[in-house]
Amino acid sequence: MQKRVIMLMSGGVDSSVSxxxxxxxxxxxxxxxxxxxxxxxxxPCTWQQEEADARAVADKLQIPFHTLNLSxxxxxxxxxxxxxxxxxxxxxxxxxxxxxxxxxxxxxQAVRQFEPNYIATGHYAKIVDGKIFxxxxxxxxxxxxxxxxxxxxxxxxxxxxGNLTKPEVRQLAKKFQLATATKKDSQGICFVGPLKxxxxxxxxxxxxxxxxxxxxxxxxAHHDGVLLYTIGQRLAAGSVDWTGDVPPLFVIAKDIPxxxxxxxxxxxxxxxxxxxNQLNWLVPNPLEVVKKxxxxxxxxxxxxxxxxxxxxxxVVAEAPVRAVTPGQSVVxxxxxxxxxxxxxxxxxxxxxxxxxxVEKILSQTKTTAP
Length: 370
What we know:
By secondary structure, the chain is α/β, with parallel strands linked by helices. The protein has helices spanning 13-24, 47-61, 71-87, 94-110, 166-175, 197-202, 349-368, and strands at residues 4-8, 28-35, 65-69, 118-120, 126-128, 131-133, 157-158, 210-214, 219-223, 250-255, 260-264, 271-281, 292-294, 302-309, 312-321, 329-333, 339-348. Strand 13 and strand 14 (302-309) form a beta hairpin. The protein is globular, with a radius of gyration of 23 Å.
């Protein structure tokens, strides 16, 4: 008896080839396009074109195709949380939320009437016996975005591209004569696409102007909203009205209560220890096998030591890590590249120290002022 697969089709080449491979492997494939973000007049979305491309591929493959409207769920679980994170002074990752709350949760619940055995996506990841591993194409590894999904759904997931490289996927798209064969990879937020993120945030995040300091307490500029910046961000040329040091300058800390932005050299964004909460583990007893981690998508894995502290984890890296950012994810792996789970970074020791040091300097300056 054929196994039925819900193939999430985004209108891109990766999900298109995934659908073709599943059909070639004799699965009963049903294509589903998820309607998430529908856009606004100020921030339009090209979902109609993406849906049309996905439908064209489904027609070519002669598989059923459905559009699933999850725009309300997406607004609540992803967009609202995206804004809430920035309003709280942290930098959330909407793509991780999208996988956790929409693709592998809301969708799975919404397609039960099809009685599927599996749900499949075009992610570059491997799944073996209900365990997620890094894919053959390390340059396209997307396991970083999958740590938040519920482990109970793992036996029902397929990643058809796990053993393929991107060039091989392109070749297969031509072989299958798919309409998306030469389509460029999409960029931007999950289901939103290209977006001027700063303007998007400013449309709903309440900010106020404040001061920009160096770590030695010198006031060098003014910002238009500390919440709109993120750790490791390079300040745009001309944005700092001061010539005492040679740019570039990078955001090294955000003092939210005092509305201060603290900047310095790129190396000053480095950290070797931090904590994380909101943990999600994909395996039992994960701390026994954690060997490495990453805190940014395209960052190299780093050896780490991890211990549990009051329901959270404390992470110590063997070498300095750039731009460890509250609100972003730390994702854990075993020695053999199995995805073990992850958490949301909440406190970074160097950031807290920088904020404390600047506050101390400024307090002393006020005390000694004539």
